Amino acid sequence: KKMASKIRVVLRPVKSIVVRFCPFESNVESTRKFLGCINHKKIQATNRNCEVTADVRHDGSEPLVDVMFADGERLIMKGANLTTIEMLTALGSRCNAKELKEEQKSKKKSP
Amino acid sequence: APATKMAALSGSGAPWRRGWLPALQFVRRGSKAVTRHWKAMHFQRQKLMAVTEYLAPRPAIPPRCLAPRKETLEEDNGYVQLLRRQVEEVFRDNRMIAVCQYNSMPGEDVVLMRHYLRKHNIEVKFVLNEIVRPVLSQSKYKNLLPLFVARNILLVSREAKAKEMLRVLKGVPQINLLGACIDDTILSRQGVENFAKLPLLEAAQGQTVGALALLPSQTSSLLQRGSAHLTALLDQHIHQLQAGETGSPAEPAPAQSSGTH
């Protein structure tokens, strides 16, 4: 069983993250924990330019995580039925895939 | 066999020199009873050990099939009670209590934020959910219960200075205001912003008094309009006559006109 704070995500390909939730609802726990984990020192240190915004509403909408990547791709995670670890691993796997692509591109360009 | 060996070895030191050597040498390879390597047990001893092995007692019904028994509630230790009392005190004493989500912040930022809030007489309290939840569920603040998930801090104050608090929190991105309870009214984040935009109480009172006083003043001016108009006309008439006096005397005329009215 993994602890949510042990999962390391490399945020380099990410431009901005917007976390929207309604704190008076009951299905926001995993989204709030996700926000807390993302604001950890080590994960923030991987990319200082990434802006993490928290949007607190009161309109009964479901919790949402909106990630904008540097190459224009967008990842939307609806956290109502997801756990924190699932969200973190999903984001982490996509970031790793993008990193690999960029490394391959830079290797192709250099020689 | 071991008995004879013991008897042979019970001599003073080296068994092979002094002591009587038995006619039959029972020890084959020369290793003693206590060796540094694992020595195989005698066969009879092996059989005895195998027969007398420990078998754990198994319950007739496996515990998974039975209903789970309820664990006894642990008593609260003094520390938990003290923390609960503190939380209750906080909720009783302060007019404004704001609940914010705390994402990890560097230490200096925490100290700076505390300093700025202290200037406006706002205290920062770190709370544990497992203590706050039972206190809230028993008090009248049941609707604040869903807020207390993940790490939270409370900003408490005796005065309701929402504008300054919002300004300080805007400078700290890692703290997100979730909701507040001001004067026993639960407000969401939007509600707190609206509350901050309201003008001061004295200004609001002054505006109300002015609006209320407007109508009677209009009525009084309406009532006085007739007599004021009359006095203005008479004054004008007097001026005209005084101007015409230089030409011809006409004093009884204004006395007659005032007499008819």
Automatic annotation (TrEMBL), chain A:
<keyword id="KW-0809">Transit peptide</keyword>
<comment type="similarity">
    <text>Belongs to the mitochondrion-specific ribosomal protein mL53 family.</text>
</comment>
<protein>
    <recommendedName>
        <fullName>Large ribosomal subunit protein mL53</fullName>
    </recommendedName>
</protein>
<keyword id="KW-0687">Ribonucleoprotein</keyword>
<keyword id="KW-0689">Ribosomal protein</keyword>
<keyword id="KW-0496">Mitochondrion</keyword>
<dbReference type="Pfam" id="PF10780">
    <property type="entry name" value="MRP_L53"/>
</dbReference>
<dbReference type="InterPro" id="IPR052473">
    <property type="entry name" value="mtLSU_mL53"/>
</dbReference>
<dbReference type="GO" id="GO:0005762">
    <property type="term" value="C:mitochondrial large ribosomal subunit"/>
</dbReference>
<dbReference type="InterPro" id="IPR019716">
    <property type="entry name" value="Ribosomal_mL53"/>
</dbReference>
From TrEMBL, chain B:
<keyword id="KW-0809">Transit peptide</keyword>
<dbReference type="InterPro" id="IPR001790">
    <property type="entry name" value="Ribosomal_uL10"/>
</dbReference>
<keyword id="KW-0496">Mitochondrion</keyword>
<dbReference type="GO" id="GO:0005743">
    <property type="term" value="C:mitochondrial inner membrane"/>
</dbReference>
<protein>
    <recommendedName>
        <fullName>Large ribosomal subunit protein uL10m</fullName>
    </recommendedName>
</protein>
<dbReference type="Pfam" id="PF00466">
    <property type="entry name" value="Ribosomal_L10"/>
</dbReference>
<keyword id="KW-0687">Ribonucleoprotein</keyword>
<keyword id="KW-0689">Ribosomal protein</keyword>
<comment type="similarity">
    <text>Belongs to the universal ribosomal protein uL10 family.</text>
</comment>
<dbReference type="InterPro" id="IPR043141">
    <property type="entry name" value="Ribosomal_uL10-like_sf"/>
</dbReference>
<dbReference type="InterPro" id="IPR047865">
    <property type="entry name" value="Ribosomal_uL10_bac_type"/>
</dbReference>
<dbReference type="GO" id="GO:0005762">
    <property type="term" value="C:mitochondrial large ribosomal subunit"/>
</dbReference>
